[in-house]
Specification:
This protein is α/β, with parallel strands linked by helices. Helix content is about 30%, strand content about 20%. The termini are far apart.
Length: about 525
């Protein structure tokens, strides 16, 4: 029995892990990678034709987005996931393929003018449309036969409709082992979704650590906070632009805005229009309104049983065509625009940012994690100018990080999740899906709870019979960012930014220190800033 790490190793996206049992290769997730700290998406560190089964924890592209590549390169096995994840994969992978094709077309126009060779998309729409041929679905709690000596059980991870944590029970040459893959662990008390379910025993655990170094900001009321942002911005005649993942986060926002409308919390423009400008979000919302038996939380079930549409309210509009999208920026009526992608790396949101970032009366509201190297992260970090579509855009709009809204468990709830494992107690916990300054830190936290734990590197391998590392991984070279900055930054400034990241991480880790140490730390930082305040 062998476990290999082919993604999300000391980085947040591109989840991909491989089990080898009884001569079979079982892949757990195969996601696209985003941001600066990831490897080339076009390269797979294994032979897809040798993979026998793929298990998908949930439909987000950073967990599923390279599945069409497997098929393109010779995979002929089964893809197993929950029923609703399968429904979402059908639309999300098609949308991802459209982006791959559009990006390649745009790049090839530039390459042709520059005399450079053409590039190919990492997969096409036709290749993405083949994925359903390989899908086998299951329900939560069902024991699924994977291959000889291996069964799997999916339970609700509470992160996205259909999302799952997966336990595999394995027997090889008379040796029995169990391993749990957390997938992305959901936040608690979210609208629509249920709280995460728990496994309570396994020999090994592979768990995420996206927010392993911090707790979410406590928000008294999501609707009140969001209503205040909308009320202030629309009252100044501006637009509220919300980059949001089309599946999951967009539906949550519509759920909250319905409540805002029902309670008349926005006074400045009471009948304000809301536009969901994403064909994928339109399709996903249809799935969210389908057969959700076994997937909804109690409040959402009550809404459905009473015949009330969870995402419907006066002034809500779904745009579909490119022409409809363009008209939104020609209309001066103050409005809320929800558009993808959530990290601003692709899609229609970039056009809305181009038309609103320079307006002082508008606001850009981030409602999800922004990976390092993305345009969204750059804006949150205080960029004064960005270059989009060959044009320099000043950043004058109010940039808001709405931290209270997250589909990921924070540090406290990650600790609670792993703390449930008692019988059997894991021999080792592998901490993945966290930045290079977060995953190792959270692994130390897990160690302090009495577990053996570490944050594996890319291509690292472990023997699950002996609990021994058999291959040392490495940290891939960082790739270039996916957007143009206003100007190139010097190596010295990049080192300064890295030092800032390290300082911020150190501050976060200092939360439990005594007050005397914290006062001394704060004074040292003040003296440093005074010295270099020129």
């Amino acid at each position: 029995m062998k476990l290999s790490f082919f993604g999300a190793a000391q980085c947040v996206t591109g989840s991909c892990h491989c089990l080898e049992v009884n001569g079979k290769k079982i892949l757990i997730d195969c996601g696209l990678q985003q941001g600066r700290d990831e490897i080339d998406n076009a390269v797979l560190p294994f032979n897809p034709a040798a993979v026998d089964v793929v298990l998908i924890t949930h439909a987000h592209i950073d967990h599923s987005g390279r599945v069409p590549m497997l098929i393109k390169n010779g995979f002929t096995g089964r893809i197993i996931t929950t029923r609703l994840t399968a429904d979402l994969l059908r639309i999300m992978l098609a949308d991802s393929a459209h982006i791959q094709e559009s990006d390649a077309e745009y790049q090839n126009k530039k390459n042709k003018r520059a005399g450079r060779p053409e590039v190919e998309p990492i997969y096409t729409m036709a290749e993405a449309m083949r994925v359903p041929e390989f899908l086998t679905t299951c329900e939560y709690g069902e024991e699924v036969d994977i291959c000889e000596g291996v069964t799997a059980t999916f339970i609700d991870a509470g992160h996205l409709l259909g999302s799952a944590s997966i336990r595999l029970d394995m027997t090889e040459n008379g040796e029995r082992r169990s391993i749990v893959f957390s997938g992305d662990i959901g936040n608690v008390d979210q609208p629509i979704l249920r709280n995460p379910q728990f496994f309570e025993g396994a020999d090994y655990v592979v768990m995420e650590s996206t927010y392993g170094n911090r707790d979410h900001t406590e928000v008294w009321s999501y609707t009140d906070e969001l209503a205040a942002i909308i009320d202030e911005t629309l009252g100044k005649g501006g637009n509220v632009v919300i980059p949001a993942f089309a599946v999951g986060r967009t539906q949550e926002l519509l759920y909250f805005i319905r409540e805002i409308k029902d309670q008349k919390l926005v006074k400045s423009v009471q009948d304000f229009p809301v536009y969901v400008d994403s064909p994928l979000a339109r399709s996903a919302t249809t799935i969210f309104c389908g057969d959700l038996t076994g997937y909804l939380d109690e409040e959402a079930i009550e809404l459905v049983s009473e015949g009330e549409h969870m995402f419907s309210f006066p002034g809500m509009n779904m745009t579909e065509t490119v022409e409809e999208s363009k008209l939104l920026n020609m209309d001066n009526v103050p409005k809320v625009i929800i558009s993808a992608s959530g990290m601003c790396d692709a899609g229609r949101i970039r056009h809305h940012l181009k038309h609103n970032l320079w307006k002082e009366n508008s606001a850009v509201v981030f409602v999800g994690f922004q990976s390092p190297g993305t345009l969204g992260r750059h804006l949150l970090d205080g960029a004064e100018k960005v270059k989009m579509f060959g044009e320099e855009i000043a950043v004058r709009a109010k940039i808001i990080n709405f931290q209270g809204l997250s589909s990921h468990a924070d540090r406290e709830h990650l600790i609670d999740w792993i703390g449930r494992f008692k019988a059997p107690k894991p021999q080792h916990v592998f901490v993945v899906h966290g930045d290079s300054d977060v995953a190792p830190l959270f692994a130390e936290t897990v160690q302090s709870m009495g577990f053996e734990a570490h944050a594996p590197l890319y291509t690292e391998e472990y023997d699950l019979i002996t609990c021994a590392r058999t291959a040392v991984g490495y940290m891939p070279e960082k790739k270039k960012v996916s957007f143009d900055l206003q100007k190139k930054t010097s190596d010295a400034f990049q080192k300064l930014q890295q030092a800032l990241d390290n300082l911020a991480a150190l501050v976060r880790r200092s939360r439990q220190r005594d007050n005397k140490s914290l006062h001394a730390f704060a004074e040292a930082i003040r003296q440093l800033t005074d010295k270099f305040n020129f």
